[in-house]
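Below: protein 1.
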Amino acid sequence: MLQDGTEIVPALWSTLAAVAGFCATASGFYAINDALDAKSDRQHPVKCQRPIASGAISVRTGLMMGVLLPPLSILAAGSIDASLGWILFAYGMLQVFYNLGLKRCHGLDVMVLAGGFTLRAAAGAAAIDRPISVWLLLEVFFLTLFLAFIKRQCDLQTATNNHAKDWKSPAGYHDEHELDWGTGLSGGLAVVVFVMYATSGHAREVLGPGAEGLVFLTPFVISALLRFHRRAREGASDSPLAALLEDRIMLLSACSFGLGLVGLLAFPDLREALDGILMTSPE
């Protein structure tokens, strides 16, 4: 049992159900998306390696997975926790509209993707029956919006580098400068939200005095975003894991951020020292 009286086993079971439900639902819609885009993906030097586009899985099998997995996982999650089931249902409807046409709507496609990941964060809070911070929702939305633009940029740059003239972006992203603006805007907003949270009363309430020390981790966030954008402009993989394994500066930034965060969380004396140095707003 946790300090607030929450039973660990039921909370853990609900959390696992949320993870499994979203994995199954997302997999089903990914299969539908790949089945519908198989012809276009075969024209792209990287997307042609996807299971359906490459022929490893038939279009029919992909569509069957897409039809069966989402409703079954939504019903299963709903039987465990009603709020979790409704969030999964909302996620499923968002994906239905995405596959029906929003993925071809310039600008809306990336916001739908970011909205889907934001619903995943909300599902995690619903699984353990806890309210979710608006700061977390905003950070997840803008960070995943940045990653969505990065993916579009990687797709375009890879096609350009490999002279794949027959491939066209479904949502019409053909201007590198436009994508630069999108990544800059979303990445900048992600940084702004992080700084605003670090200096908010909510952070101080959760972490205690000295929580404003989180702002000193901002350079590592900016460094990681800049390196990710540079990789996209070069046509490298849009996978965060690949970026960490292949880019030493990005790995250093991520490790430095993690160590700094652990230091602030694990050492109250450090937060108290920062609280004595930093000027904060009155309570």
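Below: protein 2.
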Amino acid sequence: MESQQEARGTPPVAPVALEPPPSSLVRRGLKFLTVGASGVLVNQGLLLLLHGPLRWPLAAASAVAVESSILTNFTLNNLWTWRDQAAPGLRSWLARALQYHVATLPSFLTNVIGVVSLAKAFGIDYRIANVLAIGAGSVVTYLVSDRWVFRKRSAAA
């Protein structure tokens, strides 16, 4: 018996099998999220301290808080999340650190500009604005980190 699709002259469509992501990708993603959560704590904690009791201007406090979280996130991602991808040596570490800073520049700018804009222009509390701005750059940071900063390298790189 012919199906209705075959009768109309169109071949039947085979169902698409969706395969789960490789377990290493899931594990790496979970590690990245864990490191990112620690970065949120570093960022938020420093922002609260600098802009709160120390009364730094919001933009300066945000910039220092974001940079501090970038440094701690890079260190933890390098030592744990992508430990298997790193070539040994100071030169390789410096190259990855520079790449990570280039990769996180959009997040840095999004965070600092986002916090100030949301707080000043829209009246959103700076602590909430900071969390929103952090979320805005996280996916891009992961993808650039995975594909560029922490990709597997030879020992000569």
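Residues 90-120 form the longest helix (31 residues).
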